[in-house]
Specification:
- The protein contains 1 helix and 10 strands, in the order ββββαββββββ.
- By secondary structure, it is mainly beta.
- The radius of gyration is 13 Å and the shape is globular.
- The mean pLDDT is about 95.
- The protein starts with a strand and ends in a 5-residue tail after the last strand.
- The strands form 3 sheets. A 5-stranded parallel β-sheet has the order 2-4-6-8-10.
Length: about 110
């Protein structure tokens, strides 16, 4: 099975990144794949958080959606997703030990704990 996927600068690729979610990746690089999109559901959050090294900067529209209380993990890592949209409020009152949103420049919301 593929463990590393590098599609950097594949700007003409289209589709939803959800099709990748069953791949047991440890490294995912979709940098500058501007036409890839996706809804980042709780299931997608768990999959993305399991990937050790990832870069989804400059992808197309990625949107946090769904009830994050369904998460079965305590470490959320959505780093390097600078087109990810949504409100960080979805993570409020969750039993998280770690929340990494580094370079998630489009996220909004109040970070008050």
């Amino acid at each position: 099975q593929i463990k590393e996927l590098n599609l950097t600068y594949c700007q003409k690729l289209t589709g939803d990144i959800e099709v990748l979610k069953d791949m047991p990746l440890i490294n995912l690089n979709l940098f500058d794949c501007r036409n890839l999109t996706g809804e980042i559901t709780p299931q997608m959050v768990e999959w993305l958080s399991s990937i050790e090294v990832k870069n989804l900067n400059d992808c197309g529209k990625l949107v946090l959606t769904g009830d994050m209380s369904e998460l079965s993990i305590t470490k959320v890592d959505l780093s390097n997703m600078n087109t990810l949209e949504g409100d960080i409020e979805v993570f409020r009152d969750m039993a998280l030990n770690e929340l990494n949103l580094k370079f998630c420049e489009q996220l909004t919301g109040d970070i008050e704990v």
